[in-house]
Design a protein that fits this description.
- The complex is a heterodimer of chains A (298) and B (317).
- Chain A is an all-alpha fold and 298 residues long.
- Chain A is built from eleven helices and no strands.
- The two termini of chain A are 32 Å apart.
- Chain B is an all-alpha fold and 317 residues long.
- Classes of the chains: A mainly alpha (298), B mainly alpha (317).
- Chains A and B meet through helix 5, helix 6, helix 9 and helix 11 of A and helix 1, helix 5, helix 6, helix 9 and helix 10 of B.
Chain lengths: 298, 317
């Protein structure tokens, strides 16, 4: 047994029995029948759209505060969700905050998905000692709890959004590589791959047509389950002061600066964290729904 | 068994060396000169070079790694740039505080997690199962630093039942398991326990459902064994894996406690890491990470060996 990561590595990633043209359509159809997944998707879509169209829908300016109107409660006449410690409108900042928080949470998984797929498919396809060496190197990164690795890397690189994204990308490459490698190794020994090889297909063609076509789906679903962890970690880095900097609206950072207000306006102080929670759990539920929609047991 | 342990040790050694190399590199991926953090910008070049030689920064990288590794093997983790004290002593003190917190949290998480897991596994697809699954999803999705804040808001700020921060009335020194100190540990430990609770509940649920579906359970029931007797069989079958997951969770909590320690000002490794990062004290950062990661590797090894010893179904190859 190798060293296990606290990021859930899906040992049970199974290949779809038949990835035909109608496969994704049928996955989508099954997903639409899952009320929890649909609700989660709607929540995520709302938050993403609100973040994109923030300048048009936000009621105020996310940076302009007023010393006279600090820490107003939720439901205040001027501030629907209260105001923060510098008198800025919380609703506006929460809407704008989604921009950086989503960016910092989703981007590392997207990068790690690309890099991890490339590494894992390469290792799985080539096999032999190259595979062994690569997977042993990956094992080293599994020996760090994910939070520790993220903080160690971004702590060493220094505070900042770019460094936080780099650190989180490095955290997520090993688990994705491991899943990609195991799925590719499964595929490589299938008869149709052998048949393609015998009929003269080059390695690139085999990877493009047979491997990529079959492994991207399962790895993608696995990667979506990492977004929730990534959101929590990214905002956690900002919470520690390692991510975004004031006065940027970002949920983790807002949560940190509002810590001083927990005795004055506890409900307002807890709002940014509630946003992280809602987003993270929605991604988790959507990913679970996607996983069961892809498990075809016919 | 001895042979198996030896093989596992052999396997873990390159991983441990790799971990040490990553920790070593941490100082070198850091932008800028690690010494500039302690020196004034206008320090004379001579003094800079002298310091560089004292810390060994003037030698080529592989040599530095060799020297550093040799020292680490002898228990010397270097000197903190900020305080001038030995990193090993600073880390040792912090690790014991984190260990106390993480152990209490793991125990709470294990108790609640196995309870929810057993209930969910036994009454599959009932409302109890759905409730337990929901609790488990909540546990893994909640940003624990936020949960910590909410706990402080509710139990300290609003109700005034428990102290909001710190490890005890007299700060971090003289920790004792008495009532006063325990009141300080309740909130951070409860907050921290949510993660292992979710993971353990999920694992135990799957385990119990798996075991109940096996033929031997049917055979036990067929021969007329009371339900409690069947339950005992299920527990013995689920225990090795559940305990292994618990052991690993302890490792994650040790390494991942920084956010919760920051919220509760708990004087452990997280607190130390925080100080190291913001004072740019790279030797301290490196030493703390190394100790925590090695702890984790050792724990992994121990869990693996113990699980194999407990569970005769695992092949000792």
């Amino acid at each position: 047994m190798a060293v296990i990561s606290d990021i859930r590595v899906d040992a049970a990633v199974t290949l779809p029995p038949r990835a035909s043209r109608g496969y994704w359509a049928s996955v989508l159809r099954r997903l639409m029948r899952d009320p929890v997944a649909v609700a989660a998707a709607i929540v995520i879509l709302t938050i993403v759209l609100a973040a994109i169209f923030a300048p048009w829908i936000a009621p105020g300016d996310p940076y302009r505060g007023s010393m006279l109107r600090r820490l107003k409660p939720i439901g205040d006449a001027a501030f629907l969700l209260g105001s923060d410690e510098l008198g800025r409108d919380m609703l506006t900042r929460l809407i704008y905050g989604g921009r950086l928080s989503l960016f910092m949470g989703v981007l590392p998984v997207a990068f790690a998905f690309t890099i991890g797929c490339a590494l894992g498919i390469f290792a799985g396809y080539v096999g032999g000692w190259v595979n062994m060496v690569m997977m042993r190197v990956i094992d080293v990164f599994f020996a760090f709890p994910s939070v520790l690795l993220a903080i160690a890397l971004s702590g060493a690189l220094g505070a900042g959004i770019t460094n936080a994204v780099v650190a989180l990308t490095i955290v997520f490459i090993p688990p994705i590589t491991r899943v990609a490698e195991s799925v590719t190794t499964q595929i490589r020994t299938r008869d149709y791959v052998e048949a393609a090889r015998v009929s003269g297909a080059g390695p690139l063609t085999i990877i493009r047509v047979h491997v990529l076509g079959n492994v991207l789906g399962p790895i993608f679903v696995y990667a979506t389950s990492l977004i929730s962890v990534s959101m929590i970690l990214a905002s956690g880095l900002s919470f520690l002061g390692l991510g975004s900097k004031p006065p940027e609206p970002e949920w983790g950072l807002m949560l940190n600066t509002l810590r001083t207000a927990i005795y004055v306006q506890p409900a307002v102080a807890a709002l940014p964290g509630a946003m992280i929670f809602i987003t993270s759990i929605s991604f988790n539920l959507l990913s679970d729904g996607l996983r069961s929609a892809m498990e075809v047991r016919s | 068994m001895l042979l198996y342990t030896f093989k596992r040790l052999l396997y873990v050694t390159p991983v441990a060396i790799g971990v040490s190399f990553v920790c070593f590199l941490l100082v070198h991926i850091a932008p800028g000169d690690p010494l500039l953090a302690v020196l004034p910008a206008d320090a004379p070049l001579e003094l800079q070079n002298q310091l560089r030689a004292t810390y060994g920064f003037d030698k080529p990288l592989p040599v530095q790694y060799g020297l550093w590794f040799w020292k680490v093997l002898h228990g010397d983790l270097g000197t903190s740039i900020a305080t001038g004290r030995s990193v090993a002593s600073e880390v040792a003190r912090a690790v014991s505080n984190t260990l106390i917190l993480a152990t209490v949290a793991t125990l709470i998480g294990f108790t609640l997690g196995t309870f929810f897991g057993f209930v969910a596994g036994y009454f599959r697809d009932s409302w109890l199962d759905k409730l337990a699954s929901a609790v488990s999803v909540l546990g893994v999705s909640v940003p624990h630093y936020w949960l910590g804040m909410v706990m402080v808001i509710v139990f300290s700020a609003q109700l005034g039942w428990l102290p909001p921060t710190g490890a005890g009335p007299s700060g971090s020194s003289n920790w004792r398991p008495d009532a006063e100190h325990l009141s300080y540990i309740i909130l951070p430990a409860l907050t921290m326990s949510v993660i292992p609770m979710g993971v353990i509940a999920r694992t135990v649920r799957a385990l119990v459902a798996d075991i109940l579906a096996q033929e031997f359970v049917q055979a036990l029931r067929a021969k007329g064994l009371a339900e409690f007797g069947v339950f005992r069989h299920v527990v013995t079958n689920a225990a090795p894996t559940a305990l292994a997951v618990m052991g690993l969770q302890l490792g994650y909590l040790l390494g991942g406690s920084i956010l919760i320690e920051t919220v509760f000002s708990w004087p452990g490794t997280g607190f130390l890491l925080n100080a190291a990062i913001f004072q740019r004290d790279l030797p301290l950062l490196q030493g703390t990470i190394l100790v925590l990661a090695m702890f984790f590797v050792a724990l992994n090894l121990a869990v693996d060996v113990i699980q194999t010893a407990l569970d005769p179904r695992i092949e000792r190859t």
